[in-house]
Design a protein that fits this description.
The chain is mostly helical. It has 2 helices and no strands. It has one domain. Helix content is about 85%, strand content about 0%. The chain is elongated, with a radius of gyration of 24 Å. It starts with a helix and ends with a helix.
Length: about 60
């Protein structure tokens, strides 16, 4: 039981040393992740459409 308590105390001490981001930084990083995710989704959707239409063209127009 002492090992668990020592581990938790050490973990709490380490979290006090962390340089946590500010509210503004967190907001900005969140927006960045959302926009990158939307951009990637759009890019992959277009890529999927191009490959689908390309394969349909190759298969149907032999």
């Amino acid at each position: 039981m002492d090992k668990i308590i020592n581990y938790l105390k050490a973990a709490i001490e380490e979290t006090k040393k962390v340089a946590w981001p500010t509210k503004k930084e967190t907001y900005n990083y969140t927006l960045l992740v959302i926009f990158i995710s939307l951009g990637m989704a759009l890019f992959l959707g277009v890529l999927d459409l191009v490959f689908t239409k390309g394969l349909e063209y190759l298969i149907i127009n032999k």
